[in-house]
Design brief:
The protein is an alpha/beta fold. It folds into two domains: 117 residues, no CATH class; 235 residues, Purple Acid Phosphatase, chain A, domain 2, CATH 3.60.21.10. Helix content is 40%, strand content 19%. The protein has ten helices and 14 strands. Strand 10, helix 10 and strand 11 form a beta-alpha-beta unit. Helix 1 packs antiparallel against helix 2. The termini are far apart.
Amino acid sequence: MRRRFLIALAIYTTAHLYIWWRLALPLPSPWWQVATAAIGILGPSFPFTMRLGRRMSREDARPWLLFGYMWFGFATYLLLGAAASHIAVAFGVDGKFAAQLCGGLSIAVVLAGLLNVARGPVVKRVRVPLAKLPVESYTIAHLTDVHIGNVIGREFAEELVRKVNALKPDLVVITGDLVDGRLSELRPHIEPLRGLRARDGVYAVTGNHEYYWNPEPWLEHIRSLGIRVLRNEHVAIAGAIELAGVDDSSATEDVPRAVAGRDPSLPLVLLAHHPRTIERAVKEGVDLQLSGHTHGGQLLPLGWLARLFDPQVSGLGRFDRTWLYVSDGTGFWGPPVRVGTSCEIAAITLVPDTDHAR
């Protein structure tokens, strides 16, 4: 761990030196001195606050972590701006002008990303045709990657419950990474989720982050909020669909076990945190898989790297006869910044599709 930390710190320091070289040094006096001081003072804030936060309670650590994460967000886009400035100079653009333009745009992008998160989760409506659906329509409110933890807390959860209940969904599902911290500290912050309402109940599965924090006590508490956790099992929902849920693929995911014995006359909807579970879902005849994990990339264009690891990063797609919907995520992780993505509540309306009957 020490070696990994030193390697990460070396990369982080090099990135800041590059930002200074391409964006601060070309500025006229006294601005290059001001920019140099800002980078020198703010640069250490992220590693410092990350280590400090581990030794403090949630309430004490939260402002420090927010500060560190926010600088990390700025540094990410300043690094991209520095690279853009470097390329512009190589093509003959004046270095001073390139530094001012690229640095200013980088800061503007992050400020817009902060405002994007500040507005809270937005409702994204999606229609999915399913051949065997026996009702005219069925609405599922899909939440994922809420990440209630050191940064996201009770106020966000309360707002989330209000927005979900206003949709009056038939069903609410949560596809993992609901929590990200100790149960002893987050118990009051997750409490508002007890107020989630849907005609056919609230269901959840685990994500990778649940396993970072002693999962069994967490899952027991989540159940006490009226949320049923599906662990490689399925349940019939109101004669409309068969709902299956699997543990996270980093833990004990078992798709065949989850769907064994289900009613083949009803559409099968699978809750799975990782989009890559789609490979097993297709083999088991799943009609629709709902997933998260990717955050839609969260910080584009860097988020596009997620496409190297997952078959789909955002939105609705079809794999053979199986639909896959990947949410951009209801909360966020790390910097409270979203660029090119939004915190989302997916309102997924299932409708009959007689054109693709099996």
